[in-house]
Amino acid sequence: MALTRKQWNNIVIIACIFMVAVLTFIDKKTNNVPSDAQLLFDDNAPLAQLQLDGLWLHKQASKWSCDTKVLNCDEWANAWQTIRVSPLAAAPETTDAPQELVIQIADISDFQLWIYFPKEGALKSPAGNWYLVPPSLRAKLQPILDAKPAA
Questions:
Q1: Of 33, 82, 107, 141, which has the highest C-beta tally within 10 A?
Q2: What are φ and ψ of residue 123, in 5° steps?
Q3: Residue 130 backbone dihedrals phi, psi, to 5 degrees
Q4: CA–CA separation, 120 vs 125, rounded Å?
Q5: What is d(CA 151, CA 70) in angstroms, rounded to the nearest whole number?
Q6: Quick check: 150 and 142 in contact, CB under 8 A?
């Protein structure tokens, strides 16, 4: 059975829509980081400890150790150690529940209490400044606690 010109046109239109959807999805998931994004931690102020809603990671010598519930310790530590953020001029609208983020910088004995909104990628510093984590980096900032596939 041969296809009519109209049927071929419909196939081409559907294929184009599908390709645009796939390319949009890939673009959102790639490691595109805005040009104004800066490292939160650098060589002068490296991350030493972090606690996110009761789950912790700690650097001892040059090795990271994590809470026993965390399955991806090295990846989680690397994600936080190399996190990039963009400063925001105003507080963003947040819809998800905040997570407490306690940070300790190496060679500083004081802990800093930050607030993290994982869905929006918004970080609020102890000084009240707001930062935005690029969408491509957000998923790695959450620890893996269960080996079951996501539903």
A1: 141
A2: -120, 135
A3: -110, 140
A4: 15
A5: 19
A6: no
